[in-house]
Amino acid sequence: TQLLEQSPQFLSIQEGENLTVYCNSSSVFSSLQWYRQEPGEGPVLLVTVVTGGEVKKLKRLTFQFGDARKDSSLHITAAQPGDTGLYLCAGEMRAGSYQLTFGKGTKLSVIP
Amino acid sequence: EAQVTQNPRYLITVTGKKLTVTCSQNMNHEYMSWYRQDPGLGLRQIYYSMNVEVTDKGDVPEGYKVSRKEKRNFPLILESPSPNQTSLYFCASRTTDYEQYFGPGTRLTVT
Q1: How many CA atoms lie within 13 A of A101 on its CB side?
Q2: What digits encode the pLDDT tens for the residues B27-80?
Q3: Do A98 and B31 touch (CB under 8 A)?
Q4: Residue B73 has what DSSP assignment?
Q5: A-to-B residue pairs, Cβ atoms closer than 8 angstroms
């Protein structure tokens, strides 16, 4: 059973469109992270959210942690080809445990 | 430059031949971890370490060993590799406030 379900698995959109990627679980997480990974490289951390209901913005990216700390979303405004990549969410159930569970990822393609 | 390095980046070996993948970080992080990434399964944690001489199993530790004799190094050892350990391996280190940095990856093929 996958603890963290990401949807959609694949997303292909035109440059300038908006999109939202979801990360859902039936379990509560003490913190949740979002990463972006490009082919042949390691994941790069985008953001960490730790408080239920928290919203963080990183330029055109908006991250939200659900009130119950079971889900999160990543919204990209006016997507650009440089946003293309694999987006991964990862959760830590017990604070300070350093045991991270990753979702399978959403592969995003932004077409110029 | 702050970084996590892994060696080798690519390795093809045969079943049963012991190998070590090295991992080193220059950020003085206490936390380090190893992951494997497989198509359809995503990233899964193999082992992690919270400090020197402190290691613990992740989700998929079978067939792997680790050691943490120094803060900067966290090698992954496959005593007797098997084809089902063919994968893309990532080492990572982390600060106490969640910032995690991944290495560039090691692509291992076991025939």
Answers
A1: 21
A2: 999 999 999 999 989 899 999 999 999 999 999 999 999 999 999 999 999 999
A3: yes
A4: B
A5: 49
